[in-house]
# Entry
Amino acid sequence: MPEKVNYYVGEQSLRFPREVYITASASVVGKKEGEGPLGKCFDMVCGDDKFGEDNWEQAESTLQKEALALAMGKGKLKPEDIRYLFAGDLLGQNIATSFGLMDYEIPLFGLYGACSTAGESLSLAAMCVGAGYAKTVAALTSSHFASAEKQFRFPLEYANQRPISATWTVTGSGAFILSGKRSRIRITGITTGKIVDMGVKDSMNMGAAMAPAAANLIAQNLEDFKRKPEDYDKIITGDLGYVGQEILIDLLKKKKIDISSVHEDCGILIYDKEKQGTGSGGSGCGCSAVTLSAHYLPMLERGAIKRILFVPTGALLSTVSFNEGQSVPGIAHGVVIEQEGERES
# Structure
């Protein structure tokens, strides 16, 4: 009998029986994101944040529809070539996803991990391909500033003042094609996060709510894979912003882990907070997804970096829980992504 291989890694992590590659990706963003530091990197920038639709929710559906179409185009794929979709958004009952993707007629797993959904969708998609259940799948997610403000905070017409701790929800969608077909970029492992609740009740300070979950996830990933921070060229959180980044680094230093030299945050990179008035930075499901697609994957492709730990972070609140005075739990999911052939996983 051949020796049984255990693909469990530590307490919360996995490797895969089969190799899993990212063979194509695409990013679609709104006007404000296009005016930010990464503006020239995105595949599509739309000057109309309604994307030609009648309302914000339909606009977000169009974000997903266009991102998936672009990713499939890059991968030379038709809808029937994709076995499953793993997708989600921030809106109630995932309506941006369901209305945006239904015309593709691809079997769908609808996901909700708040702003961590990019990590959740990539993790589950990688597990599916890695286990041999599908040859080709897609993972995607989206967020929209106006639809999120309408659902979670105040309608835009209210023109409320925002504290400096507040993050700006990214209008954007990132789509990824995962396959067993060899490419330059490979997903070599995942670490699935736990819900962490430190009692934060301020919906205008998502960085503080999510940073403990990110710290927990990063520490667990390093322990599970027996790595040090410097074993990654970048440890990338999704949505913490400036406030959350400071909390994250402090929390990990208390665990005797210093990631300050390799840490970056997508919410910090995507906007110029001084010129664009975005407070602590960017957030939303689309924040980490479009930044990974437009900024980090090209760096891996050309060898500027060789291994990253991608950690989208989510705040698990709803209008119901918030109005009932409940705290805002956080969660984070980690995806190890490497340039193929450069290092052993």
Observations:
- The CA atoms of residues 7 and 15 lie 5 Å apart.
- The chain has two domains: 8-179, 185-339.
